[in-house]
Amino acid sequence: MSDGMHPNSVSAQRARLLDQLRQGPVSTLDARAVLDVMHPAARVMELREQGYQIETLWSREPSPCGRLHRVARYVLLPSNDAPRLPLRFRQAVGSSRRVAQ
Q: Which candidate, 49, 50, 45, 38, places its Cα nearest to that of 13?
């Protein structure tokens, strides 16, 4: 399969994820269910390789069937030309190494 802009190509998934990250944090569950990005961690890694600064916050959240899972929530950090994150997200990024209980 080519990596053109087919709706489910890697580049299209990466673009959808980046667009959503620019609006606010995105969890793995939301990336899969809402954005149709089946492997969010890989797309985040590719965005990081392109120079985007993305922090990972960990929490325990229920899946659609109700079971708790350790879930990544990705936050696009501001660049020099981007608006700053709201204070609650900046504070959360500082504690991103911990898993919320």
A: 38
